[in-house]
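Quick illustration, no need to memorize.
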Amino acid sequence: MSFEMMSNLVGAFFTLCIFSFLYKDNPFYQMAEQLLVGISLGYGLVLTYTRVFIPYVYQPIILKHQWVLIFPAILGMLYLLRFSRKLGWLSRYPIAFSMMAVGASVPMGIHATILVQMRQAMVPIETFNLFLIFIGTIAVLLYFFFSKAHTGVYGKFVDFGKWYMMIGFGASFGLTVMARISLLIGRIQFLVNDVLGLLK
């Protein structure tokens, strides 16, 4: 038996173990779930060591003698003390520094998520699509203006905003469902083509 065939059989076994949850929770599903979490954690640790620790800590400090990097390296390693009951309080210092970075990123976030969208909305209405975007933007904004009752002509116009939001949420949900279905199709193709070789 070749290595490829062996790996395909192992992959098929664990795929069927995961699919067995569709019937009910069982030991095969739990085994596959715990193996996935454990292997992912182990792979993540090795990846972090080779892609982060070696190039950004070991090589600059030990090989290139950039001693100033010791302080951020120690600060980052304090995160590991979170697993200690006595020294766990030291892990709060890197968390506090990371919160400072989050505060500094607020202006960039506002620029990326709000100002850019406002700039894209402030264009000449030259096509029907731009007109629909303009009407939808105004209607959605007025939908959240609660100082005025949603009655009469104003209420009917605001209902357009509700429809725009429902269409947007539906499209987002549909995209999520399609992503999951594409994963399912990939697994079924793996079982049918690679393992059973029926459609090759």
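The first helix runs from residue 3 to 19.
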